[in-house]
Amino acid sequence: MFNLFGSKGNLGIDIGTATIKIMELERHGGRFSLSNYGLFSIKSAGPKGESEPSILKLPDEEIASAIKEVIKRSKIKSRNMVASIPSFSTFATVIEMPYLSESELAQAIPFEARKYVPIPLAEVVLDWSIIGASGTQTAKPMVEVFIAAVPKEETMRYQNIAKMAGLALRALELENSALIRALLGNDLTPTAVVNIGGRSTSILIVNKGYERLSHNYEVGGFEITRSIARSLNVSLEKAEDLKKRLGMKEVDENIINKAMMSLIDMMAFETNKTISSYETASNQKVVRVLLVGGMVNMPNFLNYFKQRLGRDVFIGNALARVVYPKGLEKNIGELASTFAVAAGLAEREV
What we know:
Elements (H helix, E strand, L loop, with lengths): L10 E5 L3 E10 L2 E11 L18 H15 L5 E6 L5 E8 L3 H12 L10 E11 L7 E10 H13 L3 E7 H10 L6 E6 L4 E7 L2 E8 L3 H12 L3 H11 L10 H26 L5 E5 L8 H9 L3 E3 L6 E2 L8 H7 L1 H7 L4
Parallel strand pairs: 1-4, 3-14, 4-8, 9-12, 12-13
Antiparallel strand pairs: 1-2, 2-3, 5-7, 6-7, 9-10, 10-11
Helix pairs in contact: 1-3, 4-10, 5-6, 5-7
């Protein structure tokens, strides 16, 4: 069984659709310190951004080459790698089962997992962890079990990429699990995490430290940049620059507001729908919403999203428990939100 829950390396590598983010952490005593980081970004094709290139669609050799380039350019020393598998390539859920011994659970879970995993179990790596007790008021004690399934071809691909990049793959981890570790640590408060990526937005509900519900919405930062480019008839590069400079500023000269509003409003709508679905099913209130991803650094994005959502919304700080060099104070907020998954991977315990 490939290990989805144990092992640790101090080089977190987040291979996304638009970027590869690498963060190197070292552990000193009980705390992590930031040693280095680097980013590779794929170039968008087409003058108006009509095509959508994806790193994950590149040959393994090219992905490995990009990783090696970042490591060399950033002077990263570690060769122990923990990588994340995107949430849209994985399956995870929490199920309830009668209390059994660990060995009995190990035999029973594959049979139970067939009800939830949408592809044949022979084609996935299945792992599980007991996360708590439930139903203690009934005569039959129950336990909550977090199960995760990853297609075997995905695990083989990441092993191949690591080998070609000259790295030791210590573990593969679900992207959402890395986010939870980086953003929440030991905080068990019911929380929604909205991770705005380049090609999609992941909406994750976390309770007692584990993923309870997730939803992928197929709009991300690239689609918003493309909308600006179309609306103003400018290049993607110009649209991206306008997005970063003006964002959602409420000023007369902001010529990109209308091009972004409907897409961001839909993000907020999908987030509210996912939260409400969980609250209704679980009878528990989600206390806060944390935003991560490069988009959240746009001017006034937080305030605009908060108004549309009507809930307590904050920018997640994935480096809140990490020591970093003094010269990074001005950039640490942007770094923490952009490299959130990579930070969580690098913090993984043995």
